[in-house]
Input
Amino acid sequence: MNSVVLEVKNLTKKFGNFTAVDNISFSMEEGEILGFLGPNGAGKTTTIQMLLGVLTPTSGSISYFGKELLLHREEILEKISFSSTYTNLPWYLTVRENLTSLSYLYDIENRKQRVEKLVETFHLEKLINKSIGQLSAGQITRVNIAKAFLNSPKILLLDEPTASLDPDVASYIREFLLTEKEKFHISIVFTSHNMTEVEELCDRVVFINHGRIIANDTPDKLTRSIEISHIELIVKQKKEALLSFCTKEKLPHQTIGKYVVRIDVKERQIPEFLRQIMEKGIIYDEISIDKPTLEDYFLEMSGKNNI
Amino acid sequence: MKLHRIQGIVLQKLYSFRHSYDKISDAFYWPLLDLLLWGLTSNYIIQTSPSSGRIVVIIISGIVFWIIFWRAQYEISIGLLDELWNKNLVNIFVTPLKFSEWVAAWLIMGIVKGFMSFTFAAILAFVLYKMSIFMYGFAMLPFMLVLLLSGWWIGFIIAGIIMRSGSKVQTLAWSMPWIFAPFSAIYYPVSILPHWAQYVSTLLPMSYVFEGMRKVIATGEIDWSKVAIALGLNIIYLTLSLLFVRKSFEKVLQKGVSKLY
Output
């Protein structure tokens, strides 16, 4: 069993009468990628800020590598790092100047070499002498992720790191994260609104809403807890009959284009559903059945919690 | 404290200085304008009233020395605002950087840029008015150091207020030092101030510096009692202002560093 590198116990943050984070506890093991999910305003960013030491908790404790963050801040922050699409780097400074000056904030042996290595890894060669203000949102995100690897962290906290990236670059970053995890056993706390990405990357997901943890499990187990599957039928004849049947049976459905009907049906009721529409003489030309995804879980849990 | 971390912040500020026309003009344009305007005015006074004697020396010295005070406070308050404008505070405080190291970098930048602007103004004073700030040798040095300390504590007070209220009170960075100017007796003796204002002057270390500076110009002698009083007041104010800025930063951590704009 891997060792626990991050342990959060009874963490609470109140702003006046408002409780942003309400008594949450979770842990992360070495080499684990932990998805931290929740709708906007759920308390994710507040939690991440407390994990980084830039927001003081009202109560509770945060320990990295068995040491309290409050008491060993300097030592811990030397080993962890952070990247977010939503934080800026100084606008006037070039990419090289930003990476160089930030590299001095860590105890790195050969700073110049480290910066050059990151430039190569993240393909920043053409951007290196441009100021941050001249870069596109995607390029800034890439620089931000490179910045997070300056100190060769043991733990990474990534707040929507691939938002605003082109799909090919996002895919490259995901692969890079997985390789780093395999090679160096780094642990990652990962927030994203891209559920496919979370399913692909994360070993475990902590779902938070209204400041409370409402689920903490593997993406697979969470999706299995959802019963609804999506059936897509291509129906060229009797489409109207199919739609009225769905309405009568109170099955959520939608029409996509001219012939495609997408229906949400509980997984165990699929055979019965198909039998019933056959009886009504509705013939489909093609069928595809999608199993529940993490996105379905997210939508269901968010809905249950009255967003 | 780790030197490399202070170096990192200093480096960031130097890079920023290199790219920002605002900061370059703050360092050179305003001192140039002050010296031209006030130097020519005092030259005119001498021409119309030859008995005015050392008025040029007094006014030019006042301007050049005020630059030290102004730059020291400005570097702290604008340094903080710069981080807020760039939304860069989270980036630097998720690193092992300590608050004390961040403050140390401000102080170093105050010295570096103060020296830069002071040297520029001193050369300009010599070129334009044939007046050497260094004609009194090292006699002015203690006053320069005391002014640096004064700039620091005012800078810390402004930084503390900005930390508590955000950049909506950013105008303090430009306006607050000038509140102290009339009481600091930069160009005139404290004795010409109204009685109540003289009382305020006695509480400000800067007034002892400029009074002392005029004495050096008049007699060539340093009044060490003035240096001592100014130094004592500065130590008290600096200690209190450091406590204030530290407490203000703790308040920032309560609200969240990313909430400070």
Remarks:
- Chain B has a mean pLDDT of 91.
- Chain B has ten helices and no strands.
